[in-house]
Design brief:
Layout: H1 3-8, H2 23-34, E1 45-50, H3 53-60, H4 68-71, E2 74-81, H5 83-91, H6 101-124, E3 128-131, H7 134-137, H8 139-145, E4 152-161, H9 189-195, H10 197-208, H11 211-220, H12 225-233, H13 236-252
Antiparallel strand pairs: 1-2, 2-4, 3-4
Helix pairs in contact: 2-6
């Protein structure tokens, strides 16, 4: 496919055919990730491919019991990884550091760039992915299942397989609401409401079209999509809790030594 068709045709795929991905195709997808840009060409990430059913069962709960964890033939977890780099430094009599928050951020960005390269390569070959925010939210438990050593933290992960569904692409905010030229130009109240106009309508319609989501919305007395996001879906309490999990795990994994 044309690259623009791949990009604009992206959808989150949660249902997969009972069909394996050949090692040859998987290697092609992973090689695309390896070609991604990285800070200083250090490639401070690792990619963990999970096919084993027993390991997927262990990942199911920390991935918030999302069905695609078990249904997809492959899970791929992209980790910020300075473990390899630090060992290389020691073997070459170089100072061994990269044990701070900035280093984690570099590795996290590297991992995310590799993940998106792999996703585009996979979609170009007719496969589908579904990114899982639970990878970072429950990084400590996922790291334990994957046997991660110090200086390695799971950042981005997704299911991968041949789609067994054909969902419509989700709406996106308009370019005018996202792009700034030269300097950031803050938004007026009117501009904000205009930017989110379609999202408000389409997002609300999507929730009302699913009986379980509609029932939840009605039980909580929610009146608009903004309330769904902040009262039902992404509460302050949940984000505070996940923040603590990530920060504690970064300390455990030796990324907060100089903080």
């Amino acid at each position: 496919m044309e690259l623009t068709d791949v990009i604009h045709g992206h959808r989150s795929i949660r249902k997969y055919e009972d069909r394996e991905i050949s090692q040859e195709l998987l290697d092609e997808i992973l090689e695309a990730g390896i070609r991604a840009s990285s800070s200083g060409n250090m490639q401070t990430y690792s990619m963990i491919v999970t096919r084993d059913e027993a390991i997927k069962k262990q990942l199911y709960e920390p991935h918030m019991e999302q069905s695609m964890v078990m249904d997809a033939p492959v899970l791929v977890t992209f980790c910020a990884d300075f473990n390899r780099m630090r060992k290389w430094l020691a073997l070459n009599d170089a100072p061994v550091h990269f044990d701070n928050f900035m280093s984690f951020m570099i590795g996290a960005i590297d991992a995310t760039l590799a993940a998106q390269n792999c996703a585009l390569a996979a979609e170009n070959r007719g496969l589908g992915v579904c990114y899982m925010g639970s990878t970072l939210a429950n990084c400590d438990r996922i790291g334990e299942v994957l046997g991660l050593p110090e200086n390695v933290v799971p950042v981005v992960g997704y299911s991968l397989g041949y789609p067994a569904e054909n969902p419509a692409p989700r709406d996106r905010l308009p370019k005018e609401g996202l792009v700034h030229y030269e300097q950031y130009r803050d938004y007026s109240d009117e501009e904000v409401m205009d930017i989110y106009k379609d999202r408000n309508e389409k997002g609300w319609e999507r929730y009302m079209a699913v009986p379980a989501l509609k029932e939840m919305t009605e039980q909580l007395g929610l009146k608009n999509l903004a309330q769904i996001y902040t009262i039902a879906k992404y509460t302050k309490e949940s984000h505070t809790g996940f923040s603590r999990t990530v920060l504690d795990y970064l300390a455990k994994q030796n990324f907060m030594e100089n903080e």
